[in-house]
Design brief:
45% of the residues lie in helices and 19% in strands. It has a 5-stranded antiparallel sheet, covered by helices on one side.
């Protein structure tokens, strides 16, 4: 089991990243909030990780801290919630917002996250209420409104943002619509994604 990695960032393409550890490149998938809190390419990084072994692939997920990984693993125990949906939850709201949704039974906010229907939202509220009390979550540990990583390399911010939203679970036409709905001129891909997700949260 790979539980932690410490190395140098080789490349970043939301939501994927490669970390070189003593000459071995590890490809990881991160929640978008954690991804945009990572150092720039070529800088050292330490990540908590979760290895998922499937019939067709071994997938390594990266997290900024232990509490993020603990919440991810707890979400995986909920019936009907897989890794993709858990990542979407961690990308769509921070830990405080998620806890508030659960304790206030705000299923409407959860349904705005791609892949979550009404029944899944209700199941999350029921099954996560007791589990949250046992998790030591860092306040704002997964906030989407953190500053972009310094020195991040931008290719095409708009297409990068659309690609990241698709990887998060949104359909291509929906991701494009979300990006077009905001004034994205001069924005980085991180800023476009943050604004697009915020616009969905209040819609």
């Amino acid at each position: 089991m790979i539980g932690r990695l410490r190395g140098e960032i080789v490349y970043k393409q939301p939501p994927y990243m490669m970390v070189d550890v003593d000459g071995v490149g590890y490809e990881l998938e991160l929640p978008l909030a954690a991804f945009y809190d990572m150092p720039a390419q070529g800088e050292p990084v330490t990540l908590s990780t979760h290895l998922a072994i499937r019939d067709d692939a071994h997938v390594l997920y990266g997290f900024a801290n232990e509490s993020d990984r603990a919440l991810f693993r707890s979400l995986l125990k909920v019936s009907g919630v897989g890794a993709k949906m858990a990542l979407a939850i961690l990308s769509g709201m921070n830990s405080d917002e998620f806890a508030n949704c659960i304790h206030s039974a705000d299923s409407a906010a959860l349904v705005r996250i791609p892949g979550i229907g009404k029944k899944t939202a209700e199941r999350l509220i029921v099954e996560m209420r007791d589990r949250l009390d046992k998790l030591e979550l860092k306040s704002g540990g997964m906030a989407i409104n953190k500053l972009p990583a310094r020195g991040a390399v931008e290719n095409n911010p708009v297409s990068d943002a659309v690609g990241a939203l698709i990887a998060l679970g949104y359909k291509p036409n929906e991701a494009s619509r979300m990006v077009r709905s905001i004034n994205n001129e001069g924005l980085t891909s991180e800023e476009i994604i943050r604004q697009a997700l915020k616009s969905m949260a209040v819609s």
